[in-house]
């Protein structure tokens, strides 16, 4: 089943998802292709291709290709960023093209994630024990 989105959606699930000038809160698909679109969270079992698009979090089981796009957090087996911006990337292989920026590389990303996880656990524990 292939779906094409051209508006705003809360949640989309599909085998192949083609977003064109759309916004999705949560997308879950085998493969995702975005053009001029945005998303809060994208989860793809295989590959993600984004052109002139942006997302807060992208998780791809396969390859990720960003062209003139941005993502706050990117998790993929292999990531390629061309003229794009990524805040934090976790990937075994990252290829940056000309004009690309990554704020935190894979090693720093794991450290930041561990620190935030520990801080979050401490806050939850404090809230739990405070109620008793």
Helical stretch tally: 1
Could you list the spans in which at least 5 consecutive residues all have pLDDT below 50?
Answer: none
Any idea what the shape is? globular
Count of individual domains: 1
> Helices and strands: which structural class?
alpha/beta
**Fraction in helix:** 10-25%
Tell me about the biggest sheet?
9 strands, parallel
The proportion of residues in beta strands is over 45%
Mean residue pLDDT: 86
Give the termini separation: 50 Å
Quantity of strands, as a count = 9
Kindly provide the radius of gyration, computed on alpha-carbon positions and rounded to a whole number of angstroms.
16 Å
Regarding quaternary structure, what we see is single chain
Order of helices and strands: EEEEEEEEEH
Describe this structure in words.
This protein is an alpha/beta fold and 132 residues long. It has one domain. The protein is built from one helix and nine strands, in the order E-E-E-E-E-E-E-E-E-H. Strands 1, 2, 3, 4, 5, 6, 7, 8 and 9 form a nine-stranded parallel β-sheet that branches. The longest helix is centred in the last third of the chain and has 26 residues, at 106-131. The protein is globular and about 50 Å long.
